[in-house]
Amino acid sequence: MGNALLEKYSEGRLCLADTTGEPVLWTNSIADAFDLLKRLHADDTLKFDFLSDLTAYDNGDRRDGAKRFVLVYQILSTVTHARLRIKLGVDEGEEPLSLVSLWPGANWLEREVFDMYGIKFNGHPNLRRILMDERFTGHPLRKEYPLRERQPFPDNIPLHLGAHPLPHDVIHDDIYNPNILINIGPAHPAFHGTLRVMCRLNGETIEDAACEIGYLHRGMEKLGEYKTYHQWLVYTDRMNYCSALNNNIAYSMTVEKLMGITVTERCMWLRMMLMELARIIDHIICVAINALDMGAMTVFWLMYYWREEAYTMIESLCGMRLTTTATRIGGMSYDIPDDFIPRMKKFVKDFPSCLVEINRLLTGNRIWIDRTKNVGKISKEDALKLSITGPCLRASGIDFDLRRDRPYYAYNEVVFDVAIGTHGDVYDRYLVRMEEMRQSLRIIEQCIERLPGGPIWVEDPRVRIPEKADVYTKMEVMIHHFKIFMEGINVPSGEVYNAVEGPNGELGFYIVSRGGPKAWRMRVKAPSFMLFQSYEHSIIGYKIPDAIANLGSLNIIAGELDR
Amino acid sequence: MEKDGSTVIYPTLLEEAIKWAHKNSLWPMPFATSCCGIEVMSTLSSTYDLSRFGAEVVRFSPRQADLLIVAGTITTKMAPVLRSIYEQILEPKWVISMGACACSGGGIFDTYSVLMGIDQVIPVDVYVPGCPPIPEGLIHSILHLQQVIEKSAERRPAMRPNHEDAMNAMSYRKSAQET
Amino acid sequence: MGTINVSKEYTLKERTYLPALFQGMFITMKRFIQGFILHKKYTIMYPEEKRIYSQRFRGMHFISVDENKVENCTACFLCETVCPAECIHIVAMERDPATNPYGVRKEKKPLSFDLDVMRCCFCGFCEEACPMDAIKLSRNYELSVLSRQEAIYDLKYLTREVIGRG
Lengths: 563, 179, 166
What we know:
Chain B is α/β, with parallel strands linked by helices. Chain B has helices spanning 14-24, 35-44, 79-88, 99-104, 135-151, 163-171, and strands spanning 28-32, 67-71, 94-98, 126-128. By secondary structure, chain C is of the alpha+beta class. Chain C contains five helices and six strands, in the order βααβαββαββα. The mean pLDDT of chain C is 85. Strand 11 of chain A pairs parallel with strand 1 (3-5) of chain C, so a sheet runs across the interface.
C-alpha cells in the first residue's frame, strides 16, 4: 500500500509499525474508528473489501494507550492484496459501533469479543454469548478471570433462533401454522463434532436458522497466556486436527517472525512439503466425509487408505500420527528419516490413481450432481461480505490464495495453479478441492527436487535446542539447554499477525507480546468460524438433506471453530 | 468323546452364552467431539477394521447402540448432552472413555470450560489414555472390555454416579482449588 | 502460475446416467475381485499382526536404567517444568554422599516419580528436555485401564525393563 494513500488516512491518527513492519493505525474514538473503516471500505483505489479478523486484548497495564481494552480490526484487500490493522482503545462501559452494517461477517466476531471481554457493540442485532453458555457469568479472557474457575450447567441451552422470533410467534394466514422448530445437534451423526443448528422449517423448507457453537470451547487462547511459547505448540495440533502439521508450522512461523528469525533453507522447503501434505489429508477427509454423509460409503473406504499412507510417513517423521508437534521455534523436532523421501515419491506417484477413481465415481455421477449442484450457493458478494476464506471462497469465484498473493516461504518460486469455481455450490467446492489436491502434489514434487541439504535448525542461541550428544558432554551447552527449558524463550515485546493458507482457509495467529516467555495475547483466527457463520445464511431456502450436504462441503472442524 | 478317550464338557449355562453374545457384538456409538474422533474414524476404516470384533454396525443413535465410546474433550456446555445421551442407551451398556481429555479432562486442557473427566457425569468401564490413542490402542481397549464382560467384573460403585450425582456435578459452582 | 476454473456444467452425458452407473459398478467389481479372488488385503490383523512403529514413536514412558539397575534420573525437574499437561510429579532427594558410587554425576535421585498417564498428551517434550537421557517414550500403545488410580504410574513401573524402545 503506497505511503501517500496511508498518509491520507493517518492524518490525526497515530501510525505505527508492528514487529514485521506491517502498518498499524490507532484511531482516536469510537466514531472515528467506524468512520475510518467505512471510508476504507468505500475507497475505490484501496478496495478494502474483506474483514479478516476482529478481536481485542486486555490492556490492563495500560502499555498501549490509556484505555482498558484495545480492539483490533484486521482488514484485507482481495484486489490489491494489502493488509491493514486498525486499533481502538475502549474502556469498560464504552460501546463501540458494530461493523455488521459494513461487513455482515463481523456478527460472530463481535459476539466473541463480547463473550470473552464484555465489550458491548452498539447496533449489533443479536449480542449474546457465543462460545460460553448463556448463563455463564464473567468474561474469561479478562486478565482477572482465573484460569480454572469452572461453572457447570445442569442442562443444555433451550432452543432459540437468535434474535428472530420462534415459530409460535410467526403468524401466517393459514389455519394451521406449518412452522416447526427443529434442533440438529450437538450430538448428531452428520454433524462433524459438536455443532448445533436450530432451524425453523416451513413445511420442509428451512426458512430461518441459528447456529450454536462453543460445545468444544477449551480455552486455548487463555492458555496461551499461561504456557510458554514452546509449550503452547501442543495446542496447535488440537485445533485443526485433520491437518495438524499445518497448524504447527503456521504457529512456529508466527513466533519466528516475532523474534526476527529466518529458518534455514532445508527447514523451509521441508515445511512447505509438510504443509502441502497436510492439505492433501485434510481435503481427503472433507471429500470422504461429505460423500459419506450422502450415502457414498465407497468413497470413504477408498480414500482413507491414502490417509493411512500419509500417516505412516508422518509417524516416521515425528512419532505420532495425528497430534504431531513436529516443528519447534527455529527448526523442526526431528530431521526427516532416510526413507521419507522415497516414500513421498511413491505417494506422489500412486495417489493420483485414487483421485482418478474418485473422479470416476463421483464427478459424472448423476446422483452426486443432483444432490450437490445448486445446493448451498454462496454468491461472490456474499462470500466477501461474510469473510469466508479458502476453497469455499475460491469456489464462489473469488481468485484469492494467500500462497500466491501474499507469498510466504518460497511459494513464489514454485509453480502451481489456483483452482476456482463459478457458482459457489457444493459441487464446485468438491471440484475445487479435488483440483487443489492435484496442485499440492505438484508442489510436493517440486519441493522434493529442491530440498537442499544442510542444517535443519537455525543457529540462533535464543531458540536453538541443542543436540543431545552435546548436552551430555559439554557444560555450557547443558546450561543453555537448562535455560531454554526452565525459563522459556525470551521473545521481545511487539505484535505480529501472520496468516497462512491452510486447507480450510486463512489460518492466522495474532500474538501480542510484552516480552518474556509467555504471550500477552494469543489470538487464533480460525477459518471454520467464518465458514460456519455463513452456513446460517446459505441453508435458507433449502431442505434438510441439502443442509447436511452443505455442511459436509464446508469442512467445519469443531476444534478450530471453538478453540 | 474324543478318539483317545478324553472328554470335553462345554459349560453352556445361559449366562455364559449371553455374555459371549454381548462381548462379541458390541455396537458402538461414537460420541466423537474432537481429535480422538478422527482416530475413531481411522479405526472404523479398512486398515484397522473394527468390524472384525463384532462392531460391524456403527449406530449413531443411542437407542440402537450398546457401547458408548466417548472420544474427545467434553466441556461443561456439552456435559448435559452427554448425560442425556447416556441415559437414552438401553441396558446393558458400557462406556469406553477414549483419550486423555475424556478420561481426566486432559492435562493440557485444565481450563474454565472443560469437564475434568467424564466419570463425573457418567460411569466409565474402560479408560484409554493417549492423545489420541492410536487405533490399535482403541482395539486393545475393546478387547479389554470384552474380557471385563466375560468376567462380569462388578463395576465399582464409586465410579457409577447416579442421576442425582451427575446433576450435582453439573450444577454446583466449583472453585479452582477443588479438583 | 495460472488459475483454473473447475466448474462443470450439467451436460447430456451426465443426464444419461447409465454410463456413469456402469463405471461405478466397474470400480466396485474391480475392488471386489482384488479382494476376494486375488486376496489383496489392506487390513492389519491386530492383535495377531502387530505393526512395528518407528524409533520415534511416542508411546508409554519409561525411565532408563544403567548397568547397575540404578535409574538415570537425577530429579532435575526439567521434564516436570516443560510438561504442558502437568502430569509429572517428582519429589527429589539426595543420594547418600558416603555410599554414592557416581559422585557428582548423580547426586540427586527421585524419591517418587509419579506420572499420571491419563493427563499425558504424549507430546515428547519430557524426552526432549531430559539432559540425562532418563525419561524416554517407548513404543507401547496398549494402555487401557479400568480405573483412574491404575493409570498413575510410579517409579517402580517406570524403571521396568524395556528392550530397545519396547
